[in-house]
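Quick illustration, no need to memorize.
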Amino acid sequence: MGKIAVTLQQALAQRAREGVRGSTTARPLAQGANWHVEDVLCTFGPRDQPFEERHAGVCIAMVVAGSFGYRSATGRALLTPGALMLGNTGDCFECGHRHAAGDRCIAFRYAPAYFERLAADAGIASGDPNFKRGRIPSLPALSPLIARACAGALEADGAVWDELAVEVAVSTLKAAGALTRAEPPASAAAWARVAQTVRLVDDTPGAPHTLTSLAAAAGLSEFYFLRTFQRVTGVTPHQYVLRARLRAAALRLRDDSAKVVDIALDCGFNDLSNFNHAFRAEFASSPRAWRARGGARRA
């Protein structure tokens, strides 16, 4: 389990020891004239009643640990690590933890006029730039941005945030535009089974997860589990496991001096060549180059 998830588990354990209600804390990471970024840690659980909130500006929140249900004017969705939560200015929303406690997000918030200008300058949006959906599932194009944001949150390094804020906005708009098909609704029972599964994968990304083992853990047939998982998360179980392993490896490469091959094996890859190929495909960089760039930023 990476440091991002460990911090969440420590906060949940502290809440259990103290017997207090769940809460949400937001740690400022960086800000500019028209944007700011926060590290948001939530310890609400199944016994806590969701309450209505409102987006003051445009919100793009990277889910980096835990899971939660999100309901807004654009619909409802289960948010899992690697996905983005989308919020339009002025929209009311609720976040709930019916199936499991706690989550951690890195939330980028934009002034509406600035976000519209970014969209126009990138040639993406004309007219209404509002998001038409509440979630973007875990996608390869977003993985490097999420890994960089996680590294920045752990290192308290604000040097990359101004560029990252622009890249996140533009990449999210592109991804949202490419997802033209509406996401089908899923039942509460499906949410519960998938939420349990993603927690298992994120807690143990290096374990030998297969469709058979995950379906058995969820108590479903392989066919039904595959269909249910993809409907709820937007990706297949294999895609989710692969990206969970790659996210864990990317963070370790920035923070751990272990050999690349040892990190690859610890994160669930059978050999170094497969790891290198998958890492390049996801992050457009070799593991060694990714580690070197991280070291240069810390220097």
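The chain has two domains: 3-178, 188-298.
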